[in-house]
């Protein structure tokens, strides 16, 4: 058999001692190795699928599949993977989000890298040969049937859905997220709903796995004190896709910010008010604009010196807000900028007005040089912070490889930050942050329901 | 790692970790008596960031953020912990700000800070889990300062005066015992002069202990919270146990690993989640406070499952008390517990907090190695004996759920 042709590329990664190595195989499977001194190693595989590939009929399938991937392979029964690795001190888990699903093991390297070899075998086996046994999924059931006694993974996920329903921030976020979009799949909650999880068929899940867990859709990342020349051939050997065909992914048309904005109010058995202002941002791959939006977030609402904290909490004569902050989420088809606040319910109108005023101030008057420099320093420091653990490094790499399709931008990241100007911030704020178009969601105590 | 004693008597451990961009500093302040008013220490730690004679709170916040310096000051059950983190090149700047905060805080805005704290705690209490967890501490540590939760602070914080704050602050600055851990990629020889320069006005004396002892639970305690719209019941069931500095400490670490802290392969996870599908989150937690340990099991589950979950807990507790664990399970638990401890010092901040804590406890910064040896020597008989000894004691149960389901489970009338 002819030797596989593999493309190799090196990326200079800020705060790491050595360049990060990227290998692309003929079948499209990508392998990334980052050297990090220390006794822990991280092995992960990132799959380019999440709620972005879901619809109203199968919403939650990516996350449900993530749970079921741990239920055994042809070689290893359910539970063996967890037991074997955890008995060596590993942290084993997975996560699903809008653009990706990833599976990881962080483990002490062990003598002669023994743990690396064994973990890699188990991890590759799990990624490539999940059998998803029917008895582990559990039979489809009627949610209203109170007599169900055999409960399996469907019920575990439904408990996770219940848990999120009791979290006020999650509740207001879901509302805001849903209102931000008109047709894009991002509008759905990644975890799905009880109705779908209780009834979805095993075949549907297997088909979904076959469609999206293909070589060109997977990046395997290794971070730790290891030698590339020793580990790369092993990864290639273990990740034998046996000719698995690649799928061409459907592109989604990005949504546009709703003209005129949207307001919605929901209620819960709580004592304070929760609110979110949501805006659509730029595609994650547009590193410059995404970084500018991150900076706007920083200046507006991150840390005690931020505008929102100073103006609405520190300097406010009257207590209106308990908490106010901002966040920027990066997504392939366009990120989200959120302002989130917890407030005194009687002050709802005031709270909304005050946040609007602050966004408008930034929109109309921009920022000053001092704020810009602060944002630059904080972003660099945050990048340094994310280079401290093997799992954080792997997550940063996984994000860029999966959501931005490339790691090159990491090399340029510090440069991009340095070049951003006050003018850039002004232009970007004007483009994205019109308060007339803000999507506002509020969660209020039950007694305020009219 | 090296240990030095500063001119003011404060002990400092210093470690250089090559190729780490940020330095971490942790200062432990040992509390020798209980708070006179709930929330006093918490308020004080927050006020340290609210302005000095030289900087308004806004200027201080701006200077910290402009230099990407993080100050996090917190009151824990047995100590106050002052944490700082910054890029290595900002060592002097960070300590300069720290000195100003420690020596010149004005506490002028304390009334405003009280309102802010009350607001934040009230917002926290909108989480069902936090509500239930606070109630659990109230139940297991009844009337002891360890039982103080958010609601107690909300109720009492208004009674704190500026005089209370200044007296407590003086005590922290001049009397209470402190120790420091500092880890980063720096020239170790340059760190001592920095510490001497900026911390010169802190003093450190031996503390006289005046803390209230934890009373043993005489009979099972049950408390409930009715939350009509809860989608899940929150269940905490716990026992008072020995703590760190006792021979049982490594044994309880392993008990915790086996029962519910090893991740996806612990007994509770396998029995209550994997086999019975009762929960997404189920685990055990061991919190070794200075005066007493707290060992609890936790599950969040559909409200109709309260009884079956508590029975499930009891079955697993009974099992570990009565059936010897296998050599294999013990071996796996040891490897899990020891292996996982490497995560506890993966970053400079984690390592500084861990080793600083050992110093604060008087165990020595190299205690981690000793602890690993102690864990590796634990026998299966010790596990069973310790389980029997403490799990047969009265326990504390706290359940939050809609009334109908608490009633069904026989917890309320």
Topology:
The complex is a heterodimer of chains A (450) and B (413).
Chain A: E1 7-11, E2 20-24, E3 30-35, E4 40-47, H1 61-68, H2 80-86, E5 91-96, E6 101-108, H3 114-128, H4 134-137, H5 153-165, H6 168-180, H7 194-199, H8 202-212, E7 218-224, H9 228-238, E8 262-268, E9 273-280, H10 287-301, H11 307-314, E10 321-329, E11 336-343, H12 348-365, H13 369-385, H14 390-403, H15 408-419, H16 422-432, E12 439-445
Parallel strand pairs in A: 3-7, 8-12
Antiparallel strand pairs in A: 1-2, 2-3, 4-6, 4-7, 5-6, 9-11, 9-12, 10-11
Helix pairs in contact in A: 3-9, 10-13, 10-15, 10-16
Chain B: E1 2-5, E2 11-16, E3 22-30, H1 40-47, H2 57-66, E4 70-75, E5 79-87, H3 91-104, H4 110-124, H5 128-140, H6 150-156, H7 162-174, E6 178-184, H8 188-198, E7 221-226, E8 233-241, H9 249-261, H10 267-275, E9 279-288, E10 293-301, H11 306-322, H12 327-340, H13 348-361, H14 367-377, H15 380-391, E11 396-401, H16 403-408
Helix pairs in contact in B: 1-7, 4-6, 9-12, 9-14, 9-15, 10-11, 11-15
Overall number of strands of chain B: 11
Strand count, sense and barrel status of the largest sheet of chain A are: 7 strands, mixed
Given this structure, which CATH class of the largest domain in chain B is correct? Alpha Beta
Spatial strand sequence of the major β-sheet of chain B: 1-2-6-3-5-4
Number of domains of chain A: 2
CATH topology of the largest domain in chain A: Cytochrome Bc1 Complex, Chain A, domain 1
Rough outline of chain B: globular
| Cα shape of chain A | globular
- Most extensive interface, chain pair and sizes: A-B, 76 and 67 residues
**Number of helical elements of chain A:** 16
Measured by DSSP, the beta-strand proportion of chain A falls in 15-25%
Oligomeric state of this protein: heterodimer
DSSP E strands of chain A, number: 12
Strand content of chain B: 15-25%
- How much helix is in the residues of chain A? 40-55%
The CATH homologous superfamily of the largest domain in chain A is called Metalloenzyme, LuxS/M16 peptidase-like
């Amino acid at each position: 058999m002819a030797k596989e042709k593999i493309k190799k590329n090196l990326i200079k990664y800020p705060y790491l001692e050595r360049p990060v190595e990227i290998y692309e195989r003929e079948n499209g499977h990508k392998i990334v190795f980052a050297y990090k001194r220390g006794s822990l190693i991280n092995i992960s595989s990132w799959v380019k699928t999440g709620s972005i590939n879901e619809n109203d009929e199968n919403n939650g399938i990516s996350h449900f599949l993530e749970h079921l991937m741990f239920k055994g392979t042809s070689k290893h029964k359910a539970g063996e993977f967890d037991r074997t690795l955890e008995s060596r001190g590993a942290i084993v888990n997975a996560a699903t989000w809008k653009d990706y699903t990833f599976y990881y093991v962080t483990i002490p390297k062990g003598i002669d890298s023994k743990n690396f070899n064994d973990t890699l075998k188990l991890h590759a086996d799990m990624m490539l040969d999940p059998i998803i046994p029917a008895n582990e999924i559990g039979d489809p059931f009627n949610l209203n049937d109170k007599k169900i006694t055999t409960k399996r993974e469907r019920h575990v996920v439904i408990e996770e859905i219940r848990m999120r329903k009791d979290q006020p921030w999650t509740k207001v976020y879901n509302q805001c997220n849903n209102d931000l979009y008109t047709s894009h799949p991002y509008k759905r909650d990644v975890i799905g709903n009880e109705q779908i999880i209780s009834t979805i068929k095993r075949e549907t899940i297997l088909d979904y796995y076959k469609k999206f867990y293909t070589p060109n859709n997977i990046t395997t990342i290794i971070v730790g004190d290891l030698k590339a020349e020793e580990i790369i051939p092993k990864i290639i050997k273990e990740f034998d896709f046996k000719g698995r065909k690649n799928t061409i992914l459907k592109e989604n048309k990005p949504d546009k910010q709703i003209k005129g904005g949207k307001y919605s109010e929901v209620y819960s058995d709580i004592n304070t008010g929760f609110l979110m202002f949501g805006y659509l941002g730029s595609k994650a791959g547009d590193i410059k604009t995404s970084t500018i939006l991150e900076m706007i977030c920083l200046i507006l609402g991150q840390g005690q010196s931020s505008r929102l904290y100073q103006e609405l909490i520190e300097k406010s004569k009257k207590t209106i807000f308990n908490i106010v902050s901002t966040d920027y989420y990066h997504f392939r088809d366009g990120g989200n900028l959120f302002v989130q606040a917890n407030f005194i319910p009687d002050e709802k109108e005031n709270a909304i007005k005050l946040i609007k005023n602050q966004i408008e101030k930034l929109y109309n008057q921009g920022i000053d040089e001092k704020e810009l420099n602060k944002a630059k320093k904080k972003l660099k420091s945050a990048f340094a912070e994310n280079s401290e653990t093997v799992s954080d490094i792997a997550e940063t790499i996984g994000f860029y490889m999966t959501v931005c399709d490339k790691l090159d931008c990491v090399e340029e990241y510090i440069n991009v930050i340095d070049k951003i100007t006050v003018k850039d911030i002004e232009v970007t704020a004007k483009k994205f942050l019109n308060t007339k178009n803000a999507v506002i969601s509020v969660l209020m105590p039950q007694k305020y329901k009219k | 790692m090296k240990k030095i004693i500063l001119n003011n008597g404060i002990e400092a451990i210093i470690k250089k970790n090559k190729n780490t961009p940020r330095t971490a500093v942790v200062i432990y302040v040992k509390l020798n008596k209980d708070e006179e008013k709930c929330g006093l220490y918490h308020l004080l730690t927050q006020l340290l960031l609210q302005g000095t004679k030289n900087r308004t709170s806004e200027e201080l916040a701006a200077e910290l953020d402009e230099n990407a310096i993080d100050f996090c000051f917190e009151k824990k059950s047995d100590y106050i912990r002052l944490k700082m983190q910054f890029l290595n090149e900002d060592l002097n700047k960070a300590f300069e700000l720290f000195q100003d905060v420690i020596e010149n805080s004005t506490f002028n805005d304390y009334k405003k800070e009280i309102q802010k704290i009350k607001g934040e705690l009230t917002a926290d209490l909108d989480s069902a889990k936090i509500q239930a967890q606070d109630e659990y501490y109230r139940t297991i540590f009844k009337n002891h300062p360890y039982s103080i939760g958010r609601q107690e602070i909300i109720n009492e914080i208004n009674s704190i005066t500026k005089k209370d704050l200044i007296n407590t602050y003086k005590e922290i600055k001049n009397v209470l015992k402190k120790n420091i851990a500092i880890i980063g990629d720096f020239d170790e020889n340059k760190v001592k002069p920095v510490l001497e320069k900026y911390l010169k006005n802190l003093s450190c004396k031996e503390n006289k202990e005046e803390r209230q002892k934890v009373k043993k639970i005489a009979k099972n305690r049950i408390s409930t919270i009715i939350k009509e719209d809860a989608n899940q019941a929150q269940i905490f069931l716990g026992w008072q146990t020995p703590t760190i500095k006792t021979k049982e400490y490594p044994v309880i670490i392993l008990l915790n690993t086996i029962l519910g802290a090893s991740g996806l392969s612990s007994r509770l996870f396998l029995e209550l989640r994997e086999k019975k599908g009762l929960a997404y989150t189920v685990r055990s937690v061991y919190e070794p406070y200075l005066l007493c340990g707290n060992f609890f099991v936790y599950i969040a589950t559909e409200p109709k499952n309260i009884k079956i979950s508590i029975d499930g807990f009891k079955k697993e507790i009974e099992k570990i008390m009565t059936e010897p664990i296998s050599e294999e399970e013990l071996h796996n638990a040891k490897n899990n517990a020891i292996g996982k401890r490497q995560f506890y010092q993966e970053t400079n901040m984690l390592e500084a907090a861990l080793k600083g804590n050992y110093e604060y406890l008087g165990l020595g910064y190299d205690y981690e190695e000793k602890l690993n040896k102690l864990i590796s020597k634990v026998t299966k008989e010790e596990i069973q004996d310790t389980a029997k000894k403490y799990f047969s004691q009265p326990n504390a149960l706290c359940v939050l759920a809609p009334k109908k389901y608490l009633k069904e489970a026989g917890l309320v009338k």
